Amino acid sequence: GDSVTQMEGPVTLSEEAFLTINCTYTATGYPSLFWYVQYPGEGLQLLLKATKADDKGSNKGFEATYRKETTSFHLEKGSVQVSDSAVYFCALNSGGSNYKLTFGKGTLLTVNP
Amino acid sequence: DSGVTQTPKHLITATGQRVTLRCSPRSGDLSVYWYQQSLDQGLQFLIQYYNGEERAKGNILERFSAQQFPDLHSELNLSSLELGDSALYFCASSVAAKNYEQYFGPGTRLTVT
C-alpha cells in the first residue's frame, strides 16, 4: 500500500538558517505529492504540491521537487523565520479510485530568533 | 481560513457515549473527507463522501459512521466511545471526487474520559 516516510523531528534551527525536511514515498502508479503545514492549534494548510515527475512546487519561499527516480519530495527553504515554526506533513494521493491522502508522521520545526 | 468549518471545536465526553461532529465544506466543494489525528497513529483517512454518496473508506471503525446531506454538510457519528478514540478529527473538502487538492477545517478535539 501507499506510505510516506519523513524525517523524525524535532528540528530546531536559528532564524535565517537553511531548512531541509526529507520525505520519501512508496505508491502504486504516479501519485501527486503535497506538503501541508500545521501551525499550533490550527488545522492543516496546503503549503505546496507537485503532480508529476520533475515538477517543482513552491510557496512562501518553500520548495520541493518531485523526484521519481528516488521517490522523494524533500522540502527546502533557504532562510527560515520564527513564524515558520510549525509541524510539516508530507502527503501523497495515488489517484485511481482511491482519493485519500496518505500522510507522513509529521516533522516539528522550531525556529529560534 | 480555508473556508471549511467544523463544530464543535472541543468535545469532552465519557466512555460509552455517542457524539456527532459536523463539517461544512467550502462553497462549491462537493467532496468531503474525514481524518483522525492521534499521537500514536498520526493522520489517518477515515471516509470520503461525494455529493451525498460514500466514495472511499479507510481505517474507519464499525462504531463510526458518516453521512453527507443534500446541502453538502457532513456529520461524523462516533458511538460506544472508548478512551482510545480521543483525537483530533479533521474534515477536508475538495471540488470534485477525484481532486487532489484538499482543504482542511480547523478540527474538532475529542476527549473521552
Summarize this structure as a short list of keywords or feature phrases.
heterodimer; A: 113 residues; mainly beta; six-stranded mixed β-sheet; four-stranded antiparallel β-sheet; B: 113 residues; seven-stranded mixed β-sheet; 11 strands; globular
Which sheet architecture does the biggest sheet of chain B show? Answer: 7 strands, mixed
Number of strand segments of chain B = 11
The low-confidence runs of chain A, each spanning 5 or more residues with pLDDT under 50, are none
Instruction: Tell me roughly what share of residues is in helical segments of chain A.
Output: under 10%
Biggest sheet record of chain A: 6 strands, mixed
Derived structural class of chain B:
mainly beta
Low-confidence runs of chain B: none
The number of helices of chain B is 0
Measure the end-to-end span of chain B: 31 Å
Residues in helices of chain B, as a percent range = under 10%
- Cα radius of gyration of chain A in angstroms: 14 Å
Architecture overview:
The complex is a heterodimer of chains A (113) and B (113). By secondary structure, chain A is mainly β. Helices cover 0% and strands 50% of the residues of chain A. Chain A has strands spanning 3-6, 11-14, 19-21, 23-26, 32-38, 44-50, 56-59, 62-65, 75-77, 86-93, 102-103, 107-112. In chain A, strand 10 and strand 11 form a beta hairpin. Chain A starts with a strand and ends with a strand. With 113 residues, chain B is an all-beta fold. Chain B has strands at residues 5-7, 10-13, 19-24, 31-38, 42-50, 53-57, 64-68, 74-78, 87-94, 103-104, 108-112. In chain B, the strands form two sheets. In chain B, strands 2, 4, 5, 6, 9, 10 and 11 form a seven-stranded mixed sheet that branches. In chain B, strand 7 and strand 8 (74-78) form a beta hairpin. Chains A and B meet through strand 5, strand 6 and strand 11 of A and strand 4, strand 5, strand 9 and strand 10 of B.
